Amino acid sequence: xxxxxxxxxxxxxxxxxxxxxxxxxxxxxxxxxxxxxxxxxxxxxxxxxxxxxxxxxxxxxxxxxxxxxxxxxxxxxxxxxxxxxxxxxxxxxxxxxxxxxxxxxxxxxxxxxx
Amino acid sequence: xxxxxxxxxxxxxxxxxxxxxxxxxxxxxxxxxxxxxxxxxxxxxxxxxxxxxxxxxxxxxxxxxxxxxxxxxxxxxxxxxxxxxxxxxxxxxxxxxxxxxxxxxxxxxxxxxxxxxxxxxxxxxxxxxxxxxxxxxxxxxxxxxxxxxxxxxxxxxxxxxxxxxxxxxxxxxxxxxxxxxxxxxxxxxxxxxxxxxxxxxxxxxxxxxxxxxxxxxxxxx
Lengths: 114, 221
Prior knowledge:
The structure holds two protein chains of two kinds. Chain A is α+β, with helices and mostly antiparallel strands. Chain A contains two helices and six strands. Chain A has helices spanning 3-20, 41-51; strands at residues 25-34, 61-67, 70-73, 79-81, 97-101, 105-113. In chain A, the strands form two sheets. Chain A has a three-stranded mixed sheet, with helices on one face. Chain A has a three-stranded antiparallel sheet with strand order 4-3-5, with no helix packed on it. In chain A, helix 1 (3-20) packs across helix 2 (41-51). The two termini of chain A are 35 Å apart. Chain B is an alpha/beta fold. Chain B has one domain (8-220): P-loop containing nucleotide triphosphate hydrolases (Rossmann fold, 3-Layer(aba) Sandwich), CATH 3.40.50.300. Chain B is built from eight helices and eight strands; from the N terminus they run βαβαβαβαββααβαβα. Chain B has helices at 14-29, 45-55, 75-82, 100-108, 151-154, 156-160, 180-190, 207-219; strands at 3-11, 33-39, 63-69, 87-91, 117-121, 138-144, 164-168, 195-198. Chain B has a seven-stranded parallel sheet, with helices on both faces. Chain B is globular and about 70 Å long. The chains are: A alpha+beta, B alpha/beta. At the A-B interface, helix 1, strand 5 and strand 6 of A face strand 1, helix 1, helix 6 and helix 7 of B.
């Protein structure tokens, strides 16, 4: 998996914004991850503990917020939330569906001390 | 000391996406069409590229290839060079996917201005390459029938982002229990009306349909 490169990006973004805000320390990092974005929380935390050492983000806690995936049926326009990885329209059974949301992969905010 | 929450909302892979955009602009400016070719190991990525090269060799189409591998070997790029096209081997150093920075580096090694088509052969993997934009025009996946008909169900993310699907090794269908309807139904749920070509690089069956699609894209550049 690619959790190492992902974790490096999180650190880079967090440090950039913390420095801009003249922070002494970053205490918390909030990530928003959609249901369709694959990422393993434990693995990110593991890499984080290693790569955040000696940075302004050392000891920051990472919080994961999961967002559901919302789909729309292209035949009957029903909107529904994905429960299995592959799910036809629960109303008309059509397989013609489009993803409306659920691929979020954002660093939403950080908490800092000045 | 005061605690303060700072709102950011930045895509975690933003840095990669920015470089992917730069790559795309470079490829556009050179007038080439570009493909990110993904598949599991052994699906026939290199064979498929060679079939494509051989089929349009005498049509004065210049094809450049970027070969991504996790180990420092040049097996694939040697095959492309032997076929008479420029190739660059990128060693990801064990990483499971190519990213935009690696492509940026590889573009420097290719005679980009002379190319009509750039094919990037991603690392054999059905998970990670789906998440990293490279800056190519289209995402193409090869799914070979010996891998089984359940792959769309097991690796949905890679199918969602596709522009073209190649079903390879169809010459083996008589020997396998591969339910094409079940396979296609899974694909349909992830990517309705996805452009799909069933081919065999061994017998060349179906390759002409893929070539027709490809040539149309190249001629628009």
